[in-house]
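Notes from hallway chat w/ T.B., transcribed later so I don't forget. T.B. wanted the structure written out for a chain they're using in a teaching module, and asked if we could keep both sequence and structure tokens in one place. Agreed to drop them here.
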Amino acid sequence: MFDSNFTAGDLVTHGTFVLVDDRDKTVYVTRDGDLMYVTTEWKNLSAVLEANARAASEFSKTQKLGDMERVASIPLGVYHQWAAEGIMEDDKALARRLNDSDFSKFRTNNLKV
């Protein structure tokens, strides 16, 4: 009999593999010991902005929210720029940046950070 009670950890025993590779993005899953990471590399800015807009339009404050809700998706280059500015290590500065209307296209919902 086939056991269908797999976890992601059972399927990814070590290293990195490509989960999705299409014209807009490549999604990697990496296992590092007991930790697993999912990384999305967007191939063009319009693709990430369109995906964010879709996620934002599908989001409803009345839906059941989990302990962690994705509030934004930013391109890797922007992430590195913000990290160089110290934004990524400063929770208050990151919240101000993500709540700033100038960066609204990076948002995936309308919750306040």
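Follow-up for T.B.: Residues 64-106 form one domain. Might be a good example for the class.
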